[in-house]
Amino acid sequence: MSTIAIPDTPSDITSDTPPDTASSAAVLCPQLDPGSFRVPTQQALHAVQPSTHAPRILMLYGSLRERSYSKLLTLEAARLLQGMGAEVRIFDPAGLPQPDAAPADHPKVQALRELVLWSEGMVWTSPERHGAMTGIMKSQIDWIPLSEGAVRPTQGKTLAVMQVSGGSQSFNAVNQLRVLGRWMRLLTIPNQSSVAKAYDEFTEAGRMKPSPYYDRVVDVMEELVKFTLLTRDAAPYLVDRYSERKEALARQHAQTLASM
């Protein structure tokens, strides 16, 4: 045989047992808290009233140069997103203070955070500098909080990552952006774009030339829109976690005991 048996499985529970209740899981895993455990279902992924508005995409780029290739790539991707029916907003990082150098009520910080709350998906585009994303890119992400009260501004939203390089093709910046996306609890799509020798890929007017690099950007934006449409209504369900339900029940129980 090419498979192994799962130890401690009761004889009446098989791979054909329909997971319609948590009872089988409780038998298999006695460590579970039955009041917090939920069996994932296909039905719960479908919204009763699916959203009909255009996908809302926020774009961030990581350079302040007058001729910024990360900005030019962002603008090119924005045109594609608009052509695919998305509503697009691009944050201008000029004037954004360094993290901890200004209070959170700074106008640029508030503008960034409001855009994050508005968005259903994001695109992060950074130059690669000294083998890493730029400080401008990282500062924008650092100003985005994991949570504000009961609101988690980024959780469950989609993310696409891109980078531009002055030399040969590299993936250091996009790899770092993926780590940050996971940390921010974003649904980072599988595809990505890395444009090498970016100075050769844009016209004097700032438009991206036809090339395999351009085709990849089209692929990435198309995938982002698809994933956003697929997940935006299901995001609350997708990020609903057993551990957090368990903690909430424990707090509720403690409050009940304290009020007695």
Give a summary of the structure in a few sentences:
By secondary structure, the protein is an alpha/beta fold. 36% of the residues lie in helices and 11% in strands.
Description:
Strands 1, 2, 3, 4, 5 and 6 form a 6-stranded parallel beta sheet that branches. The longest helix has 20 residues, at 212-231. The radius of gyration is 22 Å and the shape is globular. By secondary structure, the protein is an alpha/beta fold. It has a domain at 56-231: Flavodoxin domain (Rossmann fold, 3-Layer(aba) Sandwich), CATH 3.40.50.360. The mean pLDDT is 92. The protein is built from 8 helices and 6 strands. It has helices at 23-28, 69-83, 107-118, 135-142, 172-183, 212-231, 235-238, 242-258; strands at residues 56-61, 87-90, 121-127, 158-164, 187-188, 193-195. β3, α4 (135-142) and β4 (158-164) form a beta-alpha-beta unit.
Question: Key features?
Answer:
alpha/beta, Rossmann fold, 8 helices, 6 strands, 36% helix
* Biggest beta-sheet profile: 6 strands, parallel
Cα gyration radius (Å): 22 Å
Determine the CATH superfamily of the domain at 56-231: Flavodoxin domain
| Helicity level | 25-40%
Task: Write down the secondary-structure element order.
Answer: HEHEHEHEHEEHHH
Give the distance, in angstroms, between the N- and C-terminal Cα atoms: 58 Å
Beta-strand share of residues: 5-15%
Helix/strand structural class: alpha/beta
Provide the CATH top-level class of the domain at 56-231: Alpha Beta
Mean pLDDT across all residues, rounded? 92
The stretches of 5 or more residues where confidence is low (pLDDT under 50) are: none
CATH domain fold name of the domain at 56-231 = Rossmann fold
CATH architecture of the domain at 56-231: 3-Layer(aba) Sandwich
Question: What is the count of helical runs?
Answer: 8
Globular, elongated, flat, extended or rod-shaped: what is the shape? globular
Oligomer: single chain
